[in-house]
Design a protein that fits this description.
Layout lengths: L20 H24 L4 H9 L17 H13 L1 H6 L3 H12 L7 H14 L7 E2 L2 H8 L7 E2 L13 H10 L1 H10 L3 H11 L1
Antiparallel strand pairs: 1-2
Helix pairs in contact: 1-6, 2-3, 2-6, 5-6, 7-8, 7-9
């Protein structure tokens, strides 16, 4: 979900920085995978569709705290989001896959001032967990978009097979998370593989 939890120090001092894509992916798995999966399991086990939609829309963790990504969004605005999503709960349940569910959520709340692409994705991901509909593509927004640009990837979403083989052990949702958390390290790793000036020019043109 674009950076679950608090980012931990990459390496103990004196041991240098991570320098390869494999190291970045392994670090993500070690530091973030379990927490992200536990979060989604919490939504999978909600007692009802309305309960899952409510917690997803209000951006609440299992211990009733606000998710870090949405901590600055006024509660009243998220309550408005919940009302709109509860009104289409049957359509959400009937969505064929995550892409269809995400499209429904985006159509319903994406135009609300103060609700950006990251919040639309996060809420869709949480509701999708309840309905066992996981992303099959990687969705781009905020920091994730910056991480994807390192690989010359643009747009709103992409096929994870587009990425180097180092990422094959991650699910699309985990890739989304990893690209966001480690965007700076990904840039450094790619520049060490060569053509750093070309990568920098591509990122500058697309900013």
């Amino acid at each position: 979900m674009g950076g679950y939890g608090i980012r931990k120090q990459l390496r103990p001092r004196g041991q240098g920085r991570i320098s390869t894509l494999d190291e970045i992916v392994n670090l993500y798995i070690r530091e973030h995978r379990n927490g992200a999966r536990e979060e989604m399991r919490g939504f999978e086990s909600e007692r009802s569709p309305s309960a899952a939609i409510r917690r997803a829309a209000l951006c609440m963790t299992k211990d009733s705290k606000r998710h870090a990504h949405q901590r600055r969004i006024p509660k009243g605005l998220l309550e408005k989001v919940e009302v709109r999503l509860q009104a289409i709960n049957r359509n959400l349940a009937k969505a064929a896959d995550f892409a269809a569910l995400h499209k429904l959520v985006d159509k319903e709340i994406g135009q609300i001032k103060g609700i950006g692409a990251l919040t639309v994705y996060d809420i869709s991901h949480r509701i999708g967990a309840y309905y066992r509909k996981a992303p099959e593509h990687v969705y781009l927004h905020a920091g994730t978009r910056i991480g994807a640009r390192v690989f010359s990837i643009n747009g709103d979403s992409f096929d994870p097979k587009t990425l180097p083989k180092s990422f094959t052990c991650l699910s699309p949702a985990e890739i989304e998370d990893c690209l966001c958390i480690y965007k700076d390290e990904l840039y450094e790793a790619q520049t060490q593989r060569g053509e750093p000036h070309k990568i920098l020019r591509r990122m500058s043109r697309r900013s």
